Amino acid sequence: MKGFFQELVRNRILFLMIAPALLFFIVFSYVPMVGVYYAFTRFSFDGGLFGGEFIGFKNFEFLFNSGVLWNLTKNTVLYNIAFIIISNILQLACAIFLSELPGKWFKKSTQSIMFLPFFVSFVLVGAFVFNLFSNSGVVNTMLTSMGLQTYDFYMHTAPWKYIIVFFHVWKGLGYGTVIYLAAIMSVSDEYHEAAKIDGANIFKRVRHITLPLLVPTFILLILLSLGGILKGQFDLFYQIIGNNGMLYNSTDIIDTYVYRSLAVNFDIGMGTAAGLYQSLFGFVLIILVNYIIRKVQKDYALF
Amino acid sequence: MKTKIKTVGTLLVSTAIMASMLAACGSNNNSNSSNEGANKGTEASANAGSNAADAKTPDTSKKVELNWYLVGDPAPDQQKVVAEWNKMLEQDLNATVKLNFTTWTDWQTKYNLLLASGEKIDMIFASSWADFYKFANQGAFMPLNDLLPTYAPQAWSNISEQDWKEATVNDKIYAVPATYPEYTPDGLVYRDDWRQELGLPEITNLDSIEAYLDGVKKSKNITPINGKAYNEVFTMFKSFEGYQQIGGDSGVIVSKSYDAPRDIVAYPFTPEFEEWAKKMKTWAQKGFWKSDTLSDQKEAGDAIKTGQGAVYWRNAPGAGGFITGMEKSNPDIKLGYFPFSRFQNLTMPTLSVNNAMAIPKSAPNAERSLMVLDKLRTDPKYYDLMSYGLEGTDYSMDADGKHIVTPPAGVAAKDFKGYGIASWGFRVESMERVKQAGGWSGFDALLEEFKSQSKPNIFAQVIMDYAPVKSQQAAVNSVIQQYGMPLMMGLVPDVDKAIATYRKQLEAAGVNDVLKYVQEQANKSFDAQGIK
What we know:
CATH class of the largest domain in chain B: Alpha Beta
Low-confidence stretches of chain B: 1-55
CATH superfamily of the largest domain in chain A: MetI-like
Mean pLDDT of chain B: 84
Strand content of chain A: under 5%
CATH architecture of the largest domain in chain A: Orthogonal Bundle
Shape of chain A: flat
Largest sheet of chain A: 2 strands, antiparallel
Number of domains of chain A: 2
Number of strands of chain B: 15
CATH topology of the largest domain in chain B: D-Maltodextrin-Binding Protein, domain 2
Oligomer: heterodimer
CATH superfamily of the largest domain in chain B: Periplasmic binding protein-like II
Order of helices and strands of chain A: HHEEHHHHHHHHHHHH
Radius of gyration of chain B: 27 Å
Structural class of chain A: mainly alpha
CATH topology of the largest domain in chain A: MetI-like fold
Number of helices of chain B: 20
Helix content of chain A: 55-70%
Shape of chain B: globular
Mean pLDDT of chain A: 87
Structural class of chain B: alpha+beta
Low-confidence stretches of chain A: none
C-alpha cells in the first residue's frame, strides 16, 4: 500500500494525465454495471429502480424457452467471425498497398474515399440495399435489360449472408485501413533500406518486414473485437432485413431477436438479461483467447 | 514544463472562479424571481381571501414550475406559444409549465423510460395505445379520485361517468380522459376515378375489393398496394372475420366475434386463417403487392400521390385527412373510402382513454397540474392557444367566430408552416374549432353510419400486463414476425406446410399459456362489465 502511495506521489503528473480516461470509464462503464441487477428483478413503479422483486433467472427464460437461442448464438458468432476475419485481412491488405504506393495525392484521395462509407448511417445503407435488390431495384432492372430472369432477393435467404458481410466490410474498410497504416508508418525506414541494399524485392520486404511487425496490432485488434462477438451489429441487420420474417432463418441474430420480442412489451428486466448473456459470453471468450495467446506468444497477449 | 503547468493551473483556477461567479449570478436571479413569485403569490392569495370566503379554493400561493410531457413533435413556434401560455398561467394560477415532447422517433421507448426512470413529471399524455392500462395497473400513475373534485372541478363534473369508468383501473381513476368521442374503424382509401374509368363494381365486400385490385393491376400496370402492405391485409383479415383483439394485445389472440366475446382463440389455429392465407397467396401471386413488401419502408399512400399505387390503409378520420390533403395537392385524383366495419356492420367508439392526460407517481405538483389542465379544458383562450397556436400567425378566426381558418388571412399558403401538436390528451369536443377528419365532406355520412351500428367497446378495457407469461409472450411475438407475417402476405411457397410450421413454432413458444392468460383476464373483465 505504501509503495502505491509513493508511486502516486512520484508520478503524480502521469496519474493526473490518465485521470480523465479513468474517470470516463468509471462513469460510463463501471457505474452502469450496477444495472446488471435488473436482469434478476421484476421492475415495478412502486419500488423505483432498485425496489423490484428479486425473481432469479426468470428474465432469461424467454431466451431459452423457445429453443431458438442456439440458432441465434450460432448466427451471431458466425457472422462476427466472418466480419472480423474478412475485415481485418482486407484492411491489412489495403494498408500495405497504400503504404507502398508512390504519389502522395493519389494515396490521400484513395484513403479518403475508402473512409467515406464509415460515415454513412445504417438507415441509408438500408435504403441502398433495398433499392439495389428489390423487385424493381438496380440489380433486377439490369437482369431484365440483359434479357435474364429476375431474381427475387427478398424471398430467398441464400444471398443475404453475403450481402450483409459485404456491406459490413465495405463500411469498416477505410477505418481499419487507417489503423494498420499507422502501424506500418511506425516501422522504421532503416529496415527497408537495409533490406533493399541486401537485394530484397518489394514482396520479400512485405513478407519479411511489414507483416511480422504488424502481427501485434493484428492480434490486438482481433482480441478487442472478440469481446463483442455476441453483440451483433443491430443497426446493420435491422436496417437491411427489417421486419422481413422470410429471411430470419439465416439473418436473425440475438439483437434482432431481442428487439422483436420486447419491442411490443417493453421490459427492463428481460432486456438486461439478454444484454448480460451477451456480455458474459464475450467476457469468457476474451479471457479464453487471451489465455491461449499468452501460452503461445506471451508478448502479444492483452494482459 | 513547469511554467506550462503553472499557466494551465492559473487558467483552471480562473475558469473555476468565472464559473462560480456565473453560478452566483444565476442563483441571485433565481432568488430574485422566487421572491417576486412569492410576493405575487401572497398578493394573489390575499386577493382570493378577500374576494370570496370559499374554503375550497385551492392554495396557489407557492409559485411552481410544472413539467409536462406530450408525445410527438413540437410545432415550429412552440416556444412562443408556450411563453404566451406561461404568461397567462402565471397570472391565473401562479404556475409555469415546461412543455416537453418525446418526438415521434422512438417515442414508445422514450415514453416507457420517462415513466420507468422516475423523472419528476407533473403531467404526461396517456393512452390506451400507449399502454395506459398496463402502466396504471403497475402503479406508474397517481390515483386521482381524491384530487379531482377539488383541483379539477369542471372536468370532474363535465366528463361523463362512462368516460371516467374507462379511465378506472382497480377502482381508482388514473387519468383525465379527453372528451372527444371518435370512431376509428380501419378501412381502405382507394382511387375511385380509376374504378369508374375501368367500370369496376362498387366496393362493398371482399370480392369487389379483389375485383378492384385485379382490374387496377391489369389495366393500369401498377402495384395496387405499393409499399408496405401488412397493415392493409391484417386489418382487413381481422375485420372480415369479425375477430376482436383484446386489451392492448397486438398478437394472435382474438375473440372470435363481438356476440361471443368469451370465445377466445389464437387465430392461426382456426380454419378461417387457413382459408385466408390461401386467398392471400393467390392475391400475392396476382401482384396486388410486391414480394418485397415486408422489407419496404414506404407508405402505400405515397405511391398514390405519384400515380404508382391505388390503395392505402387508413382509419376513418385518418382517411378523411388523407383525402382532403390529396384534394389540395393532387386535385385530379379522386379517392374513395371503404371502412372495414361494413364487413360485419359493427363499429365501436374509441375508449375515452384513447387520449388522456395522466399524472405520474413522481409528480411533485399534481394539484397545480390538475388545475392547469382544468383551465386548459374549459377556457377558450387557453384551449385555442395550445390547440391551434397563435392567432394571426398560425390561424385566424372564421367569420362565424366558431371555426378557424388556416393559413391565416394575409399569409401565403406556400410559406405557411402552421401549428399542430399532439394536443389530443386535453381535447374537448365542444371547444374544438376544426372539424373531424380534416373537414372531409364524406365524413358526416360515415359518422351517421358508424353511430347507427355502434356497440360499446367491451374489449379495450381488459387489463393485461402479461406479467405471469411475459417470456412466452416475447417468444410468441418473435414467432409472429418470423412465420406469421409472411403467411399473412401470401409470400410462402407452400401454405399448408407454412401453417403447420407456424403452429408448431407458436406452440413451442408458449402460445397456449398466453391464450390461457388472456382468457382469464378477459373473463374477469367481462364479469365486471356484466357481459355474458
